[in-house]
Amino acid sequence: MKIQFVIVSILLLISGIAAVNAASISGNTVTVTDPRDAAALVYISGYEISPAVFYPGETGTVTVHVTNAANTSVVVSQPDLIDPHIVVVNSGDFATTTSIGPGSTVDYNFVITADGSDGTYLPLFTVSTTIYGAKAIHSQIKLKIDSAPVRASISAKPDTFSLSNKDTVNISIVNPRAGDITDVLIVPEVSGAEISPKESYVGTLKSGTSIQVPFALTPQRETDVTFHVSYRNGDNKHTSDVVLPLNLGENKKGAQIVVNNIESSDAGSTITLKGDVTNNGLTAAKSVLVTVGSPATPVNPNPVYAIGNLEPDDFSSFEVTYITTGPGTVPIVVEFKDADGNVFSEKFTSSANGNGTAPGAAGYGSLPNAQSGASSGSTNNRRVGGGMFGSFGSGFNQLPLTEIVIILVVIAALIIAWRKGLLNRLADRFRKKPKPEDELKEQ
């Protein structure tokens, strides 16, 4: 029994020595002596596909890496990529044999056309060696075809656009595909509007991500803006257009000018016009100026009244002096700017009778079909007034301010006299003195 064990051990040792002599590892290669063993050490070490996901009918590349792990060169030939839904465009480039050196890698670049519908395909890569009796080398490649488009749309815009008013619109680009897209570029095309920037380069948009790209638009008339969106899937260029109609209307978020509480008085040939300007909008009116238009002629001392900035719900008084050739309506011109420096001008009418309150003086500066007429009351936020007691809006103008002040002064004087005891002394003087007989009775 012991003798048999020794014999088996010796045989195993001899087999191990023979195997080591037949093939040994040196660096990145395996030392072999049999050419068929060398052919067996050729393998597919990896592959790349561009684009990562094909559109149906798109052309791209499949690069397969073939590596020789043997210590001797191996000659290979007849590489091919086989699948009924894949068309190899450059099959004639692989008619010759290729020698792969020890530890080296050879790349096979297939130009293909994806000729299938949406789905995942497994084309077979195969390559043969010139060594007789050696097996072919092959591996499956995973390839995806997807027709899902990259989506471009208008994600943010105002309800309506206003003439010469700058607004911002956002272009949304969504990449729902399993692969990245590159060279994403947006170029707007428009006639009858100013737009900034003239183009926007996004670059690479990763799979499953989106981006918002803002553009500033200032329309000069009703028109359409076409946003040309282009991108590449691999080397294949794709385009998509997004059309935005610029429908003009009222700027719902802009400043809204109201003029009311108009009064006029004359001194010789010069008429002084006073009133209130209110911003009834949602944004500030900047650099507000008030003057009068033809047939009136503004004159000194106040041909143009500068109010400055009016915040929403704020108001200020104004005073303009002018001359006119006769009775009739006088245009009140209010000019202001928005935050971007765009200039707006609104006109209101006032009767140029030069005598008392001017009828027909109120109106809304940015509302269409606004009705004119004297309007009472206004928000009491800011007022520049004159006179001893000032003025606080049309409601307060109806109060008897002089009488109220006199009453307040009398009350204050009585309080001071009471604190100093003057009222007690005065009361003692008028208090009734007792008679002499009443004093005797008390005693």
Task: Describe the secondary-structure layout.
Layout: H1 2-22, E1 23-26, E2 29-32, H2 35-40, E3 42-50, E4 53-54, E5 59-68, E6 74-82, E7 86-88, E8 98-100, E9 105-114, E10 119-121, E11 124-129, E12 137-140, E13 143-145, E14 151-156, E15 167-174, E16 181-190, E17 193-196, E18 200-205, E19 210-219, E20 223-233, E21 236-246, E22 257-267, E23 270-279, E24 285-292, E25 297-298, E26 305-310, E27 315-323, E28 329-337, E29 343-351, E30 355-357, E31 363-364, H3 394-397, H4 401-419, H5 422-430, H6 436-442
Parallel strand pairs: 4-13
Antiparallel strand pairs: 1-2, 3-5, 5-9, 6-8, 6-11, 7-9, 10-13, 11-12, 14-15, 15-19, 16-18, 16-20, 17-19, 20-21, 22-23, 22-30, 22-31, 23-27, 24-26, 24-28, 25-27, 28-29
Q: Describe it for me?
A:
- By secondary structure, the protein is mainly beta.
- The protein has 4 domains: 2-145, Sandwich (Immunoglobulin-like); 151-246, Immunoglobulin-like; 257-389, Immunoglobulin-like (Sandwich), CATH 2.60.40; 400-443, no CATH class.
- Helices cover 15% and strands 46% of the residues.
- It has helices spanning 2-22, 35-40, 394-397, 401-419, 422-430, 436-442, and strands at 23-26, 29-32, 42-50, 53-54, 59-68, 74-82, 86-88, 98-100, 105-114, 119-121, 124-129, 137-140, 143-145, 151-156, 167-174, 181-190, 193-196, 200-205, 210-219, 223-233, 236-246, 257-267, 270-279, 285-292, 297-298, 305-310, 315-323, 329-337, 343-351, 355-357, 363-364.
- The strands form 8 sheets. Strands 22, 23, 25, 27, 30 and 31 form a 6-stranded antiparallel beta sheet that branches. It has a 4-stranded antiparallel beta sheet with strand order 3-5-9-7.
- A hairpin with a 2-residue loop joins strand 22 (257-267) and strand 23 (270-279).
- The longest helix is centred in the N-terminal third of the chain and has 21 residues, at 2-22.
